[in-house]
Specification:
alpha/beta, 7 helices
Length: 158
């Protein structure tokens, strides 16, 4: 399943939103190579995935749909939302990862949505979940996997 690395990584919905809704996008969609850092840890994480050297990024239709839902709520133009979702999927594939529909495997969080993210982590045998969600971060480590904030992930991977 992994083409570039043995390290599978999942980015939670909030990581993508912190990139695509940031006020300081610094030239997005052109993501700078990291390091140097942009000041937006989520953007730096996505840039590392785009470089396709450090890890394989996995996502799911659930994550993509939730990103789209929030972008619609923020009243972004349909064309912009379409480009953002295409970029998310393209970076996932460029990293050596893929879009996966995982079976229900995780029931460790009281939050149903969080369990859907954990399903993806477990099914793809990803070793790291990157999130800003306090509920998920409180589970770290989970099933021999790290759950890290974007900043902690950057420090870990770089």
């Amino acid at each position: 399943m992994n083409n570039h690395s043995d390290l599978g990584v999942v980015f939670d919905v909030n990581v993508y939103l912190n990139v695509f809704l940031a006020q300081d996008k610094e030239g997005f969609p052109l993501l700078p190579k990291v390091p140097p850092k942009t000041g937006n840890p989520s953007q730096d994480c996505l840039s590392l995935a785009f470089d396709a050297e450090k890890f394989n990024l996995f996502t799911s239709p659930h994550i993509i749909e939730n990103v789209a839902k929030v972008l619609h709520e923020k009243e972004l133009e349909e064309v912009t939302i379409g480009r953002i979702l295409e970029t998310l999927v393209e970076i996932t594939h460029l990293s050596g990862g893929s879009v996966v529909v995982p079976p229900r495997l995780a029931f460790d969080s009281a939050d149903f949505e969080d369990n859907l993210i954990l399903d993806l982590v477990k099914y793809t045998d990803s070793k790291v979940l990157v999130t800003s969600d306090r509920g998920l971060l409180s589970l770290n480590p989970w099933n021999h996997r790290l759950i890290l904030s974007p900043m902690d992930f950057l420090e870990h991977i770089l």
